[in-house]
Design goal:
Blueprint: H1 5-26, E1 31-32, E2 38-39, H2 42-45, H3 51-56, H4 68-108, H5 113-145, H6 153-175, H7 179-184, H8 191-197, H9 200-216, H10 219-244, H11 247-257
Antiparallel strand pairs: 1-2
Length: 258
């Protein structure tokens, strides 16, 4: 019996999580004791004294003893990282096109502007609602699971300091925005910049405006444009089907590397 895609993704998730836990438990990190004594980790035993330089492919005396086992480990890490990041990039690649093409086709197929305005309002409301739900789930999981609690104190401090400035800047920027500014930002100043930057609310606004414009011009002029965007919607949907075939393996790679 052929397994459905969602079951394959779930299996990849579980296997990737198990593989990540096993590697994490078996792979001993290099430790520096308070007295300055160095406790060899797994990379040291494989002949890799400078991991960052080794993965960068640069020559170093600290990695002179790296052999076949170190090369296999490096290849496995790089391959896993590549597979996961490639999958994420492909998802980002089709995210904006599917929104643009499908919304333009949907908006242009409605001749009643009242219906169109209701659909636009519902689309924006759904986007805001799903964003709020995603943020809530992320905050709840972060507080319940506390993924950083198992990190060494030194690593936790470094991560906190590294992200603190970025988080503070975002908080200050959000504090300076009022409701009017937030609504104004939905309308893109530069449509191409909005698409390139992946600002979804602006992309939704742009797509609905193009769809409305197509309903207001003569059908003989609008029809070829609508047919084009309809065909591009089918193309992107087909690409999504192809990309999702790799989802189980990509999920495994992402979880194993986490």
């Amino acid at each position: 019996m052929k397994l459905a895609l969602h079951w394959k993704i779930l299996i990849g998730l579980v296997l990737g999580l198990a593989a990540g836990i096993i590697v994490h438990l078996a792979w001993a990190p290099t430790e520096i004791l308070p007295g300055g004594e160095r406790v060899a980790g797994t990379w040291d035993r494989l002949g890799v004294g400078d991991v960052a330089t080794y993965f960068a492919g640069k020559a170093s005396d600290a990695n002179a003893d790296a052999g076949l086992a170190a090369g296999v480990a490096k290849f496995a890490v790089n391959a896993n990282t590549f597979a996961g990041q490639l999958f994420l990039r492909l998802l980002k690649l089709i995210a904006v096109p599917i929104v643009v093409f499908s919304l333009i086709v949907g908006a242009s197929s409605l001749n009643d502007l009242k219906k169109l305005s209701r659909i636009g309002g519902k689309t924006i409301a759904i986007y805001i609602s799903t964003t709020a739900i995603a943020i809530t789930i992320g905050l709840v999981l972060a507080n319940v699971v506390q993924p950083g609690r198992y990190l060494p104190d030194e690593d936790r401090t470094q991560l906190t300091q590294r992200e603190l400035a970025n988080a503070t800047a975002k908080i200050e920027a959000a504090a300076d925005r009022d409701v009017w500014r937030t609504i104004l930002d939905i309308v893109p100043e530069n449509p191409f910049d909005a698409i390139a930057s992946g600002r979804m609310l602006q992309v939704v606004c742009l797509s609905l405006m193009v769809g409305i414009g197509l309903t207001l011009i003569p059908e003989v002029k609008a029809r070829p444009i609508i047919v084009f965007f309809d065909g591009m919607t089918d193309v992107v949907i087909k690409l999504i089907h192809i990309i999702m075939l790799a989802a189980p393996y990509a999920v495994f790679a992402l979880m194993a590397n986490a």
